[in-house]
Automatic annotation (TrEMBL):
GO terms for molecular function: G protein-coupled peptide receptor activity. Residues 1-168 form the G-protein coupled receptors family 1 profile domain. This is Sex peptide receptor. The keyword Transmembrane applies. Belongs to the G-protein coupled receptor 1 family. It comes from the Eukaryota. Keywords: Membrane, Receptor, Transmembrane, Transmembrane helix. InterPro entries: 7TM_GPCR_serpentine_rcpt_Srw (IPR019427), GPCR_Dmsr-1 (IPR053219), GPCR_Rhodpsn (IPR000276), GPCR_Rhodpsn_7TM (IPR017452). The chain crosses the membrane at residues 7-26, 60-87, 112-133, 153-171.
Length: 208
């Protein structure tokens, strides 16, 4: 648990520092529309425009490659590796336990991993690809294409975070038990204290 807490804290700190280029690359600019109405839009900051738009290019490459595309490739490789290990473990388990029980456990875990992987790829890979093209093609592509899909990609990221919780709860009993233990301690404690009725059995005794 201490190592898990350190990993969580390190993730928050590293992500905050790593996203500093994103914070200073964009700004909200005001302009007047054709009908005279004042409107606002996301635009590049003055700092991002300096030195031949160096910060703008760095930001798109960091955001697209390191925070989007690399995690997609890494998660794909890790998930496929986990599925392969689970498949091999399932084959070994079949020799010792009931085949049907082993198959059900293996199938549930495999489906959960595949669902999490596919959902992550569908929601994160398009954003990384568009950001990469923005870094290669420049600000014209960002203004004409990337911004038009900005709200859609943000909605997909939120959907990914929300549905992952549902996937874990519906497919993993261990996740449900851990969630109940953390957030519903009274119910979990009551469940732990519920006596288990054992089948009656006859014990031979010897009288002296």
């Amino acid at each position: 648990m201490p190592r898990a807490k350190c990993a969580i804290i390190a993730t928050y700190v590293i992500c905050t520092i790593f996203c500093i280029p994103v914070y200073i690359t964009f700004t909200v600019s005001k302009f007047v529309g054709n009908d005279g109405a004042v409107m606002y839009r996301v635009d590049f900051s003055k700092i991002a425009q300096r030195h031949d738009k160096l910060l703008e290019k760095i930001n798109f490459w960091l955001f697209s490659v390191i925070t989007k595309l690399v995690p997609c490739v890494a998660l794909t490789a890790l998930s496929l590796g986990l599925i392969r290990v689970l498949y091999e473990a399932n084959l070994r388990r079949q020799r010792l336990k009931n085949r049907a029980e082993s198959d059900r456990s293996h199938d549930r875990t495999t489906r959960m991993l595949l669902a999490v992987l596919l959902l992550f790829l569908l929601t994160e890979f398009p954003a990384g690809l568009l950001a990469l093209l923005s870094g290669i093609l420049g600000s014209d592509f960002f203004n004409n294409v990337y911004l038009n899909f900005g709200e859609t990609m943000d909605a997909l990221a939120l959907i990914n975070s929300a549905i992952n919780f549902i996937i874990y709860c519906s497919m993993s009993r261990q996740f449900r038990d851990t969630f109940a233990l953390l957030f519903l301690p009274k119910c979990a404690k009551t469940q732990e204290l519920t006596p288990i009725t054992e089948p009656s059995r006859t014990v031979a005794t010897t009288c002296v």
